[in-house]
Amino acid sequence: xxxxxxxxxxxxxxxxxxxxxxxxxxxxxxxxxxxxxxxxxxxxxxxxxxxxxxxxxxxxxxxxxxxxxxxxxxxxxxxxxxxxxxxxxxxxxxxxxxxxxxxxxxxxxxxxxxxxxxxxxxxxxxxxxxxxxxxxxx
Length: 138
Prior knowledge:
Layout: E1 11-12, E2 17-19, E3 22-24, E4 29-30, H1 34-37, H2 82-99, E5 100-104, E6 117-118, E7 124-125, E8 131-135
Antiparallel strand pairs: 1-4, 2-3, 5-8, 6-7
Keywords: Heme, Iron, Metal-binding, Monooxygenase, Oxidoreductase
């Protein structure tokens, strides 16, 4: 939903190419708008709604083979930290969920979270999400 950078690094077209009815001349700088890909209604049902369950049972992965979802880039410019992220994410998230109960700052409910974004060099939430860990005593 919220890529760190809305645009991937610029790429240079090595040959003339036709893409979706547009001609991209050789040596043109091409910017890929990852933010827009993630909100394309022709690819995603309810694109502006956070629904991680939409990926259950689908063949889409984050490894750069499915261009509808490319959070780590793709091809030879794919993120070099991807293997580490794939291994560590489950361990870190599981440890945090197991050790703490979580509540939102200010006693707001999840439906009241402001999901608006402010744009700049990187995409950030207009109002940062603040959570409070509550230690689980065993």
